[in-house]
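> Could you send the CSD domain-containing protein prediction when you get a chance?

Sure thing. Input:
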Amino acid sequence: MILGAINWFNNEKGFGTIQTVCSGSVFLHINSFYRKPLGELKRKQIVAFKKKTTTDQGESRATGCKLLETAADFGILMTLLGEDTLVDMRAPVTRNNTPDPDDQYYCLLKHGTLQLFDNRPERSFIDTVLHYFDKQLDEAKFIQFCTYLEQIAIPLIKTDDREMLEQTLYCHFYANLTAGILFQAWKHNAFRYIAYTEGMDYEIPEEIIAARRNELDESEWNRIRLYSYGANFLPST
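Output:
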């Protein structure tokens, strides 16, 4: 599915447009939703949909639409990890309006997070993140996921202790480490995401290195050779 932000919508007539990162403007009709939203649709709400070309001129129409509304939609939002998520929402300039610089580019990840968790308890956010980590996360995107949490999501969540919120998540990641996630944390020197703060480096098990030797570059081999088992890896590797 594609994610985009509603650019404008006429609730009386039941149609408008969605603005996307790659597909430009897409026509949206209220009947395109699997389940019609309970309230009025508003500018900048995040919608997941499929795109259908409807004319010979290549005009696009949204089908199978879903407004991101609940924590259950978090997995849909996470399909944006590693993607460009800035949508150009600049309104046309007329005699009566001046472009607002804060209204030009809209981050789907940021505002999708607000749409899902604004005015919801901190526990709802924690449970949603941990469930996604346990059941859905692609290990190769672990660093992107944690970067999103650190830079976008956690600063938006209403909490009395932001540091404790971070540690709650990172300690869970550590307690449920897999070889793949540990390797990603090691490769990117991102040990804070697994609640490791005791040193500059983390000598991960030799067998993890051996299993992923084809993914390593020269600088990483030089790093490994300083480890207690470094002599087991000859320069020819």
